[in-house]
Amino acid sequence: MYEEVEDVLPNLGIMANEIVKARSEVNEIVNELSASIQELKEDAMCSKMEIRKLKVLVKVSLVSVCLMTIVIAYQMFGKATETSFVLGH
After folding, report:
1. What is the C-alpha to C-alpha distance for residues 16 and 8, in angstroms, rounded to an integer?
2. What's phi and psi for 49, nearest 5 deg?
3. For the whole model, what pTM was predicted?
């Protein structure tokens, strides 16, 4: 029985080394994936901030267009009833 144990011991050492190598490889992969996930989170945050800025810009532009339309309509129709509207004068 002792001889059988002695025969198996080198194989156990080899298996232990392979397990240690596999663990270190898995740890490296996990670290790389964690870094990739962090980068993706940062990119997502930047994208969200850009979308918010663009939404505000669109709203401000829409309000500006509405105000300009109201001013133009007032000038065309409001002043036309007060005085005669002649282009160029």
Report:
1. 12
2. -65, -40
3. 0.56
